[in-house]
Amino acid sequence: MTETMEQWMEELLKSEAASEKMTEKQTKILASAIEVFAEKGYAASSTSEIAQRAGVAEGTIFRHYKTKKELLLSIVAPAITKLIAPFVLRGFGKVLDSNYESFDQVLRAMIENRIEFIAKHRSILKILLQEIPFHTELQVHLQKDILAKVLERLEKIVIKFQAQGQMVDLPSMTIIRLCISTIMGYIAVRTIYGEREDAVWDDAREREETITFIMRGLGYSS
Amino acid sequence: MTETMEQWMEELLKSEAASEKMTEKQTKILASAIEVFAEKGYAASSTSEIAQRAGVAEGTIFRHYKTKKELLLSIVAPAITKLIAPFVLRGFGKVLDSNYESFDQVLRAMIENRIEFIAKHRSILKILLQEIPFHTELQVHLQKDILAKVLERLEKIVIKFQAQGQMVDLPSMTIIRLCISTIMGYIAVRTIYGEREDAVWDDAREREETITFIMRGLGYSS
Amino acid sequence: MTETMEQWMEELLKSEAASEKMTEKQTKILASAIEVFAEKGYAASSTSEIAQRAGVAEGTIFRHYKTKKELLLSIVAPAITKLIAPFVLRGFGKVLDSNYESFDQVLRAMIENRIEFIAKHRSILKILLQEIPFHTELQVHLQKDILAKVLERLEKIVIKFQAQGQMVDLPSMTIIRLCISTIMGYIAVRTIYGEREDAVWDDAREREETITFIMRGLGYSS
Amino acid sequence: MTETMEQWMEELLKSEAASEKMTEKQTKILASAIEVFAEKGYAASSTSEIAQRAGVAEGTIFRHYKTKKELLLSIVAPAITKLIAPFVLRGFGKVLDSNYESFDQVLRAMIENRIEFIAKHRSILKILLQEIPFHTELQVHLQKDILAKVLERLEKIVIKFQAQGQMVDLPSMTIIRLCISTIMGYIAVRTIYGEREDAVWDDAREREETITFIMRGLGYSS
DNA sequence: CATGAATGAGACTTCATTCAT
DNA sequence: TATGAATGAAGTCTCATTCAT
Predict the structure, then answer these.
(1) Which residue is nearest to nucleotide E3 (CA to C1')?
(2) Could you report the per-residue pLDDT of D168-186, keeping only the tens digit for each?
(3) Is the CB of residue C6 less than 8 Å away from at least one CB of chain D?
(4) Could you say which architecture CATH assigns to the domain B2-217?
């Protein structure tokens, strides 16, 4: 709970929460909803348990969210929007578009950035992954508004590096797919191994080898 | 493709053996349970809907499966076991261990094999993916009994090809991770694009490029 | 189960079972019905458990007994009838009516007789006691056909001894009530103490003191 | 009868204390649960009927009592505790220990007191009697916490009167058993005859004769 | 705004009973 | 006659949602 709270506090400052007016109770409700949904899945979670963990009465939830599903969406929809942020906001955009000289630096930055993001929003991402298959609206939202923009942005980057001549001449979407697959695979395994550093999982090395693998795979002479 | 045939027959035998003791109604129950679980998720599925789609009385479900959860497990547990089959059966083992001369042939066979498997069990795999996070027993089963064996088998193959000298000298587990990530990424995107063949997705080409990417990434001079 | 079976074997020989035709399965059904009803009570017993313990199929029960209630009655109704037997049959009747010279001998015989009876039919009596309140037919049967006859017989005995002059001149029904209360109290406590013989419960002594208490209470100078 | 009044008030206070926290609906649920359980037995009663008679929705029952069994226990457990009250409270204790001069007065008081108690709690006692055999916890509670204390108290009284010399020198437990048997027998028959006063059952006389019987049986010269 | 008792639809499950084999 | 799969009514219990306080 504390962990979730911390993240939330951060979110509160950064996002709409700061501008909108959320009562303290509402914040607590959201926090425990995230907690419970992530723990048991949306369908298996009961509003009464959420209320209990939030320390509010059952009815209070329905004062802020008309239905249980609205509560879910109030968690998941903003999360989807936030997924796109780094690709659109000054920070990431600026970096990718101009600064880095070589592609491996881009990969390194992306890995760093996504790991941080996942760590901070693990619970919400878990909920998102679980519920996406059952909510067409979310799927459409994710695909049209988010994925499209992300890919568009990434495409530009890839094309830029292809133009520099060392990268293989594949369709940019293919390159993006190969990069993302490999990176996500690295992050997934890393997550399973609990980010520990030992003989079984030498994170720094694995990351470098992963980047090297991609670079070689894309035709950069190593 | 002789090997693929062999697997197919073995799977058939196994499935038949199980279903021989099934009444027609029980088969129908299983089929609609898979259908409904895949469609709505386990927790959001009701036994009454499963019964309805199977064309049986609700009570009939509970004559064959003591609880709703037992029904789920009767679907998911065998699926987990089947996941391992191709890595353990003589057919596949023999092939991988000795027959193929170059690593890209191995990759090609694996891709073929897994695509076929996923196509045949898509619904069940969807259920499996959805439910794994909520059932520790399944997690343990998957990790200990299945994953361990699969990795062990794959490790042998990798080591054999590393010994031939053209492949980079990385930990075999790292190589396996990189291969699987890339292949799964290919299969995932392919699945989303619905296996269509058009300007957007030229499957034959994507597959070859994916294999080439891996081979290059692993140090084979292209 | 063995215990119950033994009793049943005896019953079989003695009662209608010998004349009627009971299949072996039917006997087993009755035996396990008695067992389960006594253990869980009629309403909380399931025909499926009875079938299971009897080692027959669920349907078999309903081939012999149209309903679950008929199965109950086939156990309980004969039991009620048997309750009266000792008061009507030659054995007991003869004894009470003529042989014994003093009332304490009558009491002693009754105690002996009832203890034996209860021991042999404990399960069935337990069922009877549990179910009597919920089945008017049984109540009527018990009251009219059984109790009336028993009391009638007992009344004669009491009157006979009253005529001998040492017993108080109370309504015979009052005397019967006092005797039965005291005797049942003795048997009840004895049953609780599990018929053990030790410092806590010296059965022989308790029985004699009980008889002495009744005799004194009824005016016999001790 | 001052003592009886005292008890009454104490009981009232205790009951009120419990019911003060009860909503009107909860009281109604309890009342109809007692009604239905007494009428049909616990296992044969349905929560839906209880709800119906109480004029509430079925779900309302489960808001107050987690399970049907908890509802039963909420009725039966306090009843067991109340059974002991008169034997432990100052009122009764004082009376028995010191005030009464002769044993028949004690008996008379006890009869009076228990008849009143039974009349007031007939339904609950019926439920208790029915369910005791199937709930080990209740058995233990009754035996350890209740019966032991009651017997201890009664023993003191008996010993006191034995010391006065007119009572037979039997183990006090034997004397208690004989008294209780006889009294319970009287109350039982009286209950069956519905407390009517006619030629068949002259209550005042039966009661006196019962007391006389006990007194004589215990050695008091009549 | 917040509460929490109340609701009633519907969830899972049990079980007496039927019937084709 | 015996079986046991199938039934469907009914049982216990859960839960999102409402509403008087």
Answers:
(1) A57
(2) 999 999 999 999 999 999 9
(3) no
(4) Orthogonal Bundle (1.10)
